[in-house]
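Practice problem 4.
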């Protein structure tokens, strides 16, 4: 499918093609473009490979969160996943990035945003981590405003 070998972030060699991009199935990092020529709107790329499951970003993200085995995250799973959906919905409208953020970064951002005490690691580059946290906050708040989502409702459930 592509000539990508190893993910620079998590070293996984497994990747899938989604929305004309190559996505690392290990961490969600976008590894590059995978533009397909489609002759008609009725013939979407995934229909040509009916045995392959479509890549669903939020399901991958939920699996990633499960693997963290963190009780605080389990207790707030619904909230985190709902906000993930809001973030994903607004990504194409409000972001200045070409690619979606990695699962590591989104989980770090959302857990801090809703007030969890768990500290998840970011990217190796501290400055990029900081920039991406700001980007996600902007996308989330703008999208929430547009769709009248009350972000306060998603803050951590008091124990
Ligand atoms: Zn990866």
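Answer key:
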């Amino acid at each position: 499918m592509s000539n990508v070998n190893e993910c620079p972030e998590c070293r996984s060699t497994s990747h899938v093609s989604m929305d004309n991009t190559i996505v690392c199935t290990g961490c969600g990092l976008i590894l590059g473009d995978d533009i397909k020529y489609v002759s008609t709107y009725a013939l979407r790329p995934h229909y040509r490979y009916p045995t392959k499951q479509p890549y669903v970003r939020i399901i991958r993200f939920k699996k990633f969160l499960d693997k963290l085995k963190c009780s605080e995250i389990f207790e707030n799973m619904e909230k985190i996943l709902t906000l993930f959906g809001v973030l994903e919905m607004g990504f194409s409208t409000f972001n200045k990035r070409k690619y979606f953020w990695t699962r590591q970064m989104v989980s770090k951002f959302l857990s801090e945003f809703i007030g969890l005490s768990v500290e998840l690691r970011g990217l190796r580059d501290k400055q990029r981590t900081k920039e991406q946290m700001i980007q996600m906050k902007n996308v989330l708040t703008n999208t929430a405003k547009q769709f009248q989502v009350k972000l306060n409702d998603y803050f951590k459930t008091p124990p």
